[in-house]
Each structure stands twice: as C-alpha cells, then as structure tokens.
Amino acid sequence: MKNNNLDHEEQKLLEAVEAGEFESTLTPARKAELEAMAAKTFTKDKRINIRITNRDLDAIKSKAQKEGIPYQTLISSIIHKYISGSLQDVATK
C-alpha cells in the first residue's frame, strides 16, 4: 500500500509490516502490564477549578467542538501534552 505521507524508509517499513516480515514478541504478561499502565494513565482522579476569560473558554469550546470532544477533555489533553514536553510554549523557544 503506497502512502504519500511517508518517506522512502517509512514506506519500506510499512511494506515489510504488511508483508508479515515482523513477528510480535509481546508476551501475555507484558501485554497485561502495558494495559494496566495505560488504564492508570487515563484515570482522572483529581478535580481542579480554574478561572479563565470568557473569550478563552469560548475559543476552547469551539476548538473542542470541531474536534468532536468535550472541552474538558481538550483542556486535560493540552495540559498533559505540555507537561510531557510534546506541546511547548512558543515564548520559551
């Protein structure tokens, strides 16, 4: 399957995977461990209250609606991405 969004090396890897040239080494025990870690990652066990401007809240709600997700989920995702380093403040670059 040709994917125009992939570079040459990525395309070769995709073709190899699709051809069955790779075999999983994931054991049932490791799979259970990874599933448990994933479940803990998405457990939301703390509630916070923040004050933001109506303008910012309206913008967040609008973006969340376009993404088809609740605005609280979008806010949580933004915070998680920032803390994990995958979302950076452009002012600090």
UniProtKB/TrEMBL annotation:
Pfam families: CopG_antitoxin. This is CopG family antitoxin. The lineage of its organism: Bacteria, Pseudomonadati, Pseudomonadota, Gammaproteobacteria, Oceanospirillales. InterPro entries: CopG_antitoxin. It comes from the Bacteria.
